[in-house]
Amino acid sequence: MIKANYYANWSTAIITAINVAWILEIIINGFIQRKLLNSYVKQNWKLPIFIVLALSLSAVIVIYFPLGLTSYVISFFALVVQTLIAADYHKVLSRFIKDSWYLTSIKVSMIISILSALSILFFAITAIAVTDY
Asked: d(Cα 133, Cα 16) in Å, to the nearest integer?
């Protein structure tokens, strides 16, 4: 079980880093396509992606704070909220944009955040099993 915790720790670190990197890719992509997004999207398209970035960064930072089980719970729910905000953001954007890499990036972001949340859940389970062992 100690090896499972070791691998869960590494997989959580890698997938949450990929999550943050992908959100940064979406922000860079949005900056490059800002004129098109401003002309097509009638609502504020910038704010939700920065909220998603803040939730992603908070999940990465909090997971390694020595808060015990609370850090896993906070990180898990930050990623769940991130996924829900990204899903709503995708729904809003899909009303204005039909086919775009930006829209596809949001879908990929939701998949990565779900995988990150599952990885944190597995990491928490293995950490509990190792400490109770």
From this structure: 27
